[in-house]
Amino acid sequence: MKTKKLLRILGILIIIIIIAVITIILIKNYQKNNQKDEFEISDKVYNRADFFDDDIDYVDEDVIIPDNSYLFFGEYINGRVEPKEIYETIDKFTKKIIPKLYDDLKEASDADISNYYDKNEKSIKKYLEIYDAEDFIVFIKEIKKLKSDEINVTGIEFVKDTIKFMDEYTVSKLKVTYNDDEVIEIGVKVFRRLQEANRNVVFY
């Protein structure tokens, strides 16, 4: 009887040991897989200087890819905003938002621009990191350097010496060319982490 009891206990202990070993193996495999996934995700968001080339393929053909993009992404460390979103936001802002502001305000006085800001503050702040009417007036004065009746983007460039990595974002000046020979410079800020209301890319 004692022998049978002992064998039963021994059998139970062996089963427990086997279960423990299997559990440890499964936990280690799970941790290993998770580490691999995290690495793949972080590799995706490191946005190295050569990373942006892979993303040109899935950007629409009519979207202008700024010159010196490889320099910008070389300073966009651990960024979570997809290159596609960055390209498309810059493209939309330079092709649609700036021409609208130019058409609305090219003949406007400072007082008119200030009133325009007050009436459209919410829409303006969706794209612009503007804090008050005075900042907006300064921004519009840069746009007013354009002189044609109609403006069409013919080139965009990250200005090499202005690209800077900060703790929470990367900034750069954008040189935007309209109608081949009319040039303005605006600032762009791309946050490292995703922001509320999709304000991941803002201009100033």
Tags for this entry?
single chain, 204 residues, alpha+beta, 2 domains, five-stranded antiparallel beta sheet, 5 strands
Percent helix among the residues? Answer: 40-55%
Q: What portion of the residues fall into strands of 2 or more residues?
A: 15-25%
Question: Nearest-angstrom radius of gyration?
Answer: 28 Å
Beta-strand segment tally: 5
Q: What is the arithmetic mean of pLDDT?
A: 84
Head-to-tail CA distance between termini: 87 Å
Would you tell me the structural class of the helices and strands? alpha+beta
Residue windows where pLDDT falls under 50 for at least 5 positions = 34-51
N-to-C series of helices and strands: HHHHHEEEEE
Number of helices: 5
**What summary fits the major beta sheet?**
5 strands, antiparallel
Number of domains: 2
**Looking at the structure, what is the overall shape?**
elongated
